[in-house]
Write a structure and sequence with these properties.
Elements (H helix, E strand, L loop, with lengths): L5 H8 L3 H9 L6 H14 L5 H8 L4 E6 L7 H17 L3 E6 L3 H11 L4 E4 L9 H6 L4 E4 L10 E4 L1 H14 L4 E5 L3 H5 L3 H16 L3 E5 L5 H14 L5 E4 L5 H10 L9 E6 L1 H6 L5 E4 L2 H16 L7 E4 L3 E2 L12
Parallel strand pairs: 1-2, 1-3, 3-4, 4-5, 5-11, 6-7, 6-8, 8-9, 9-10
Antiparallel strand pairs: 10-12
Length: about 350
């Protein structure tokens, strides 16, 4: 198969060869519209310039950093879905990925920025009052956050609309006639850090439940079976009329179902269960769970695309919220009649 040349890219994009060279090298300012057209042609044709020469000429490293939250309260399999999407998408743009851990905080970002190791940053596990945010506004390097701080001005953020996700779960149970419901949320440490996605899910759930006139309860839920069982037991003892449960904790979904079985509660005949989790987690459960999907692959992909557009000088939206989707499976049913 013939090797694609820079002349092929120029013909495909409808520009001069020199324009393609300037876009790839960064030696001369090219309009954002033209740069985007050239890069679309590069990707469409599968053109692979000499990466070393291009990086040297453009002062690019062709590396981006992904700041992973490898700390308490985070579910590793879901994190790996995000990370895989970031790495595979970055490779489509001829970029490699440097992994960092969120526990390094602002110092880690400052160190990497000073070293000129990366062209840009993708950050996860964003807190409402994230100490990294002020520094991100000061750094010259482009960045994209997977998650939203309380004040997102001057930043580029992408995530699932978790407030709407929590609301969808409450609305689904309300539509089935449930009048008293509960949310088993993320582990205590996640709320203690003020992590945005957990707080917004709880807020959306509570607001939707109130809007439908439901009695709603919400509490953090740790991940081990003993802790989940104790939480579920206490919840049902305090609220015997409870007939619907939302679980926003991937590691706790199976434990919550097991705890309900141990307490003699059938799902969905006695208690309906909805989860906010990846589809594979919901589908493997017994019974399969009605759920709002966490689109980790889509979010990770979009984060990298936004970052690459910023590196090319394009204007990108400050806020990208993915609309949640609820899939009905066998874990929810009409509310049982009052005892």
């Amino acid at each position: 198969m013939r090797t694609v040349t820079i002349a092929d890219v120029a013909r495909h994009a409808g520009v001069a060869v020199s324009t393609v060279s300037y876009v790839l090298s960064g030696k001369r300012a090219i309009s954002a519209t033209t740069s985007q057209r050239v890069m679309r042609s590069v990707r469409a044709l599968g053109y692979h310039p000499n990466a070393g020469a291009r990086a040297l000429a453009s002062k690019r490293t062709n590396v981006i950093a992904l700041v992973l939250p490898l700390r308490a309260g985070m579910h590793l399999p879901v994190l790996m879905q995000f990370a895989t999407a970031v790495v595979t998408t970055a490779r489509q743009y001829d970029h490699d990925v440097l992994l960092m851990t969120a526990d390094e905080g602002p110092d880690g970002l400052r160190r990497v920025a000073a070293s000129a190791l990366v062209d840009g940053l993708v950050l996860m596990d964003v807190e409402l009052h994230d100490p990294r945010v002020p520094l991100l506004r000061e750094l010259g390097q482009p960045s994209v956050l997977i998650g939203f701080p309380a004040d997102a001005s001057g930043l580029t953020c992408v995530d699932l609309d978790f407030a709407r996700a929590g609301a969808l779960c409450a609305e689904h149970l309300a539509s089935l006639g449930h009048r008293e419901i509960a949310l088993l949320g993320a582990p205590h440490v996640v709320y203690k850090r003020g992590t945005g996605y957990a707080e917004r899910t709880m807020e959306g759930f509570a607001e939707a439940a109130a809007g439908h006139g439901l009695t709603a309860h919400a509490s953090p839920c740790d991940e081990g079976f003993d802790q989940v069982s104790a939480t579920v037991t206490a919840l049902l003892e305090r609220h015997p009329g409870l007939s619907g449960v939302v679980v926003h904790n991937e590691a706790a979904t199976g434990h919550a179902l097991g705890a309900l079985r141990m307490l003699g509660r059938r799902v969905p005949e006695d208690v309906s269960v909805v989860a906010i989790c990846p589809d594979d987690v919901a589908e493997r459960a017994s019974p399969p769970l009605t759920s709002v999907q966490i689109p980790a692959a889509d979010v990770g992909h979009r984060a990298v695309c936004l970052l690459m557009d910023k590196l090319e000088g394009a204007t990108v939206p400050h806020s990208t919220l993915l609309e949640p989707r609820l899939t009905t499976r066998r874990s929810t049913a009409p509310a049982p009649p009052p005892a």
